User: What shape does this take?
Amino acid sequence: MSKNIILYDQFCYLCKQSKKIINTLDWFNVFEWQSLQSYQEKNDLSVEEKQELAGEIHLRKKTGETLTGFYAVRFVLLRCVLTFWLGALAYIPKADLIGNPIYRWVAKNRYRLFKNKCEDGTCRIH
Assistant: This one.
């Protein structure tokens, strides 16, 4: 694997906007995007694994390690020139005590926040 792979929901407004923004900021072209839908077609996943993938961002590092949620976001922020400072702040010890609840709140409420922009309610997390 030559790039870090970000898995995203191709139907979710927040996911699509995040992809658009990060692609603009990824000056060194270190990220590759793959939709959850195509990933699920190519891999035999359990129902639980599919729900987990739909619940938060997943990033597969070049090393094979997987980061999720807040940890994936801070990894991305640190590797984009314009957001490097924000990513560095997210690596301060105990930053996850604030970052995780914020990430989880946005992920849980993305349908409510973006319901007018989501297609067929795909932003809803059950």
The radius of gyration is 14 Å. Helices lie at 13-25, 36-42, 47-55, 69-78, 84-90, 96-114. The first helix runs from residue 13 to 25.
